[in-house]
Write a structure and sequence with these properties.
Layout: E1 6-12, E2 25-30, H1 36-44, E3 62-67, E4 71-75, H2 86-102, E5 106-114, H3 121-132, E6 137-142, H4 149-163, E7 170-172, H5 181-199
Parallel strand pairs: 2-4, 2-5, 5-6, 6-7
Antiparallel strand pairs: 1-3, 3-4
Length: 200
C-alpha cells in the first residue's frame, strides 16, 4: 500500500461527532511532544498536513485524515504533558477513552514512543489498555535520527526489555530524515488486509 492522497476530514471531541462509516481506521497515539504531527506530515509528504507546535499538548481533539479513500488515519490527543491543568488532562483521558470504546472499525493503533528514552509509566499503561481492549498495535520509535546506530540499537534493546516486547514489534522512524514511512504503510496495509480477508 502506498500512502498517496491525504485529506483532512474533520475534528471531533465526543462520540456523536466520531466518524462511523465503513472505512477502517488506524489511530496514532503517544505522549505529548513525541512527534505525532511530524509523523503524519512525513507519511503525507506534506509539512502542513498536521499542525506541529513547539508547545506540547496542543492536540486536544480527534483529528481524521482520509488516505486514498481506503482508510482513516486518526490523530488522537497526546498524553502526559506535565504542565497541563488537571481539567485538561481529564478531558484528554475522556476523549481517548470515548474514542477507543466507541470506534468499532479500528484496525490498528500506532503507539509512538521517543526512541531516546525508556517508555514512561503512561506508555506502559496505554499498552496494557490496548491489550485489555484487544486492539492490535504497532510500536513506532520516533526521532531515531537523534541517535547513532549503536545508541539506537542499545535503546531498542532496553525498550524491548522494559516492556517485554519482541524487537520485531518496533518500527524506527525519523520525520526529519523521512525514515520508516514504507514500514508504517506496510503495517497499515497488513492490518486492513487481514481484516478484509477475515470477513470473506
Amino acid at each position: 500500500m502506498r500512502l498517496i492522497n491525504f485529506k483532512f476530514v474533520k475534528s471531533a471531541s465526543k462520540p456523536a461527532e466520531f466518524i462511523t462509516d465503513e472505512l477502517p481506521q488506524v489511530a496514532i497515539v503517544g505522549r505529548s511532544n513525541v512527534g505525532k504531527s511530524s509523523l503524519i506530515n512525513m507519511l503525507a509528504n506534506n509539512k502542513k498536513m498536521a499542525k506541529t507546535s513547539s508547545t506540547p499538548g496542543r492536540t486536544r481533539l480527534v483529528n481524521y485524515f482520509d488516505i486514498d479513500g481506503k482508510v482513516y488515519l486518526v490523530d488522537l490527543p497526546g498524553y502526559g504533558f506535565a504542565q497541563a491543568s488537571k481539567s485538561i488532562k481529564k478531558e484528554w483521558d475522556r476523549v481517548l477513552d470515548d474514542y477507543f470504546n466507541n470506534t468499532h472499525n479500528l484496525k490498528l493503533v500506532l503507539l509512538l514512543i521517543d526512541s531516546r528514552h525508556l517508555p514512561s509509566e503512561l506508555d506502559v499503561m496505554m499498552i496494557n489498555y490496548l491489550v485489555e481492549l484487544n486492539i492490535p498495535y504497532q510500536i513506532i520509535l520516533t526521532k531515531a535520527d537523534k541517535l547513532s546506530r549503536n545508541e539506537l540499537n542499545k535503546n531498542i534493546n532496553a525498550i524491548s526489555n522494559h516492556i517485554r516486547h519482541n524487537k520485531s514489534m518496533f518500527i524506527s522512524t525519523s520525520a526529519d530524515k523521512k525514515i520508516g514511512a514504507e514500514q508504517i504503510a506496510k503495517a497499515i496495509d497488513n492490518a486492513i488486509n487481514i481484516e478484509t480477508s477475515s470477513d470473506n
